[in-house]
Amino acid sequence: MTHIMAGMNFEFIANMLEDVLARFPVDPAQIVTTGHSRGGSFAWYLACADIDPRLIAFAPIGGTPVRGQPGDCASADFDFDMFYSHGYDDTVIPFAGSGSSWSDRGYMGAVEATYRLASSAGCQKDEVVEIDSHDQRILSGCKTGSTISVIGYEAGHGVPSGWSDLMLDWFETVNALE
Question: Is the model's pLDDT at 173 over the cut of 70?
Answer without folding.
Answer: yes
